[in-house]
């Protein structure tokens, strides 16, 4: 069985929930404000950025957990995924 | 954008997110063609916006799956090494592919997805829910990595999650139980879609005015869908999705022959 222990799953699940709800609230607020003030669009965009950042945050959390469990093989795998995602971010800004 | 258009986008997102959570199929496949056919969005922009919906579905639903301990985080992370590379390459290449070619590829993928959903509905006729997950060790990593690379490529190219490619491979070749395969695929989709979304976002192919109401709808739909999913048989939702996917594929093919998607 290669599944993670219960406590680690809980931390990961909370990270995902935090990102999802923060993005959701910001987007809803932005959409509502948009009809009264022009900067409402910026709030909604901030919500979308939180949504975009959540998967990256999720990898970082998993990486830290693997280090904590002294599972260096999977910490390295997580770091590799993070590096590819970061490369996508950098290349995205320069194409 | 008018209030009516905004509410319509919220409703589309709500259906996509709800169907995704209820049927275990990413709702992304219905969003891209709807935007391209009925909102007149260029394919690249429709795909960019859909990627955000895919991340929203994955984030909202996988938090629940992880909590129920059906996600294999180690397996997911390993396969992500391949999906993200595929997604990155495809997202960079997608920019140089013309809209009509993308539309043809997408129509083909819609038909493939409809086929795989029919199979899924057929298989789930008298399937008992696996209450206890059997012990397993993932097998055949090379096959899994190769499939993940391809799934990631399709994700970056067409803005989809790639579940219909990854789940069968995990099930058949890697010998992972179905529930674990579905939850792990869903968990991976967020990271894969984010990789391509960064490229689309940086290039300006993600329109905030369209993405924001859609994503709000997706969140609401997938949270509600995940809550009521134990009470609803996925067969009916799958048949509804097959109908919608078939209709949208027919519309795309019709529009292609009429010289659309220029």
Structure description:
- The complex is a heterodimer of chains A (95) and B (262).
- Chain A is mostly helical and 95 residues long.
- Chain A has one domain.
- Chain A contains three helices and no strands.
- In chain A, helix 1 packs antiparallel against helix 2.
- Chain A is flat, with a radius of gyration of 17 Å.
- The N and C termini of chain A lie far apart (43 Å).
- By secondary structure, chain B is mainly alpha-helical.
- Chain B has one domain (3-126, 134-257).
- Helix content of chain B is 77%, strand content 0%.
- Chain B has ten helices and no strands.
- Chain B has helices at residues 3-23, 28-38, 43-67, 73-94, 99-123, 141-158, 163-172, 178-203, 208-228, 234-257.
- In chain B, helix 1 packs antiparallel against helix 2, helix 2 (28-38) packs parallel to helix 10 and helix 3 runs antiparallel to helix 8 (178-203).
- The longest helix of chain B has 26 residues, at 178-203.
- The two termini of chain B are 23 Å apart.
- The mean pLDDT of chain B is 87.
- At the A-B interface, helix 1, helix 2 and helix 3 of A face helix 3, helix 4, helix 8 and helix 9 of B.
Helix content of chain B: over 70%
Cα-atom radius of gyration of chain A: 17 Å
Q: Assign a percent range to the helix content of chain A.
A: over 70%
Output the number of helix runs of chain A.
3
Rg measurement of chain B, Å: 17 Å
Our estimate of the beta-strand percent of chain B is: under 5%
The outline of chain A comes out as: flat
Which chain pair has the greatest contact? A-B, 50 and 58 residues
Order of helices and strands of chain B: HHHHHHHHHH
- The count of β-strands of chain B is 0
Average the pLDDT over all residues of chain A and give the rounded result.
88
Distance between the termini of chain A: 43 Å
Count of domains of chain A? 1
Total number of helices of chain B: 10
Mean residue pLDDT of chain B: 87
Q: Unreliable runs of chain A, pLDDT <50, ≥5 residues?
A: none
The number of distinct β-strands of chain A equals 0
Rounded to the nearest angstrom, the distance between the terminal CA atoms of chain B is: 23 Å
SSE topology string of chain A: HHH
């Amino acid at each position: 069985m290669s599944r993670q222990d219960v406590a680690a799953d809980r931390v990961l699940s909370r990270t995902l929930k935090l990102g999802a709800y923060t993005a959701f609230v910001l987007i809803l607020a932005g959409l509502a404000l948009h009809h009264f003030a022009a900067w409402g669009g910026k709030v909604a965009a901030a919500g979308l950025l939180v949504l975009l950042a959540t998967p990256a945050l999720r990898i970082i959390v998993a990486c830290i957990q693997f280090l904590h469990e002294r599972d260096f093989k999977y910490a390295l795998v997580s770091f590799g995924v993070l590096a590819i995602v970061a490369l996508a971010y950098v290349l995205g800004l320069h194409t | 954008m008018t209030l009516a258009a905004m509410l319509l986008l919220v409703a589309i997102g709500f259906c996509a997110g709800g169907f995704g959570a209820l049927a275990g199929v990413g709702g992304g496949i219905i969003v891209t063609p709807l935007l391209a056919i009925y909102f007149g969005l260029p394919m690249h922009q429709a795909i960019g916006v859909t990627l955000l919906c895919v991340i929203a579905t994955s984030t909202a639903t996988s938090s629940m799956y992880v909590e129920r301990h059906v996600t294999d985080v180690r397996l997911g992370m390993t396969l992500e090494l391949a999906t993200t590379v595929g997604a990155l390459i495809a997202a960079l290449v997608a920019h140089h592919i013309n809209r009509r070619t993308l539309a043809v590829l997408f129509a083909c993928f819609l038909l493939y997805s409809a086929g795989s959903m029919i199979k899924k509905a057929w298989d789930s006729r008298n399937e008992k829910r696996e209450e206890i997950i059997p012990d397993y060790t993932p097998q055949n990593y090379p096959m899994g990595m190769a499939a993940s690379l391809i799934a990631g490529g399709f994700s970056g190219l067409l803005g989809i999650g790639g579940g219909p490619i990854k789940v069968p491979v995990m099930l058949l070749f890697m010998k992972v139980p179905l529930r674990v395969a579905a939850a792990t695929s869903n968990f991976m989709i967020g990271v894969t879609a984010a990789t391509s979304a960064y490229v689309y976002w940086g290039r300006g192919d993600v329109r905030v005015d369209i993405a924001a109401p859609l994503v709000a709808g997706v969140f609401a739909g997938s949270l509600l869908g995940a809550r009521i999913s134990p009470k609803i048989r996925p067969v009916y939702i799958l048949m509804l999705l097959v109908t919608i996917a078939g209709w949208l594929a027919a519309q795309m093919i019709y529009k292609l022959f009429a010289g659309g998607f220029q």
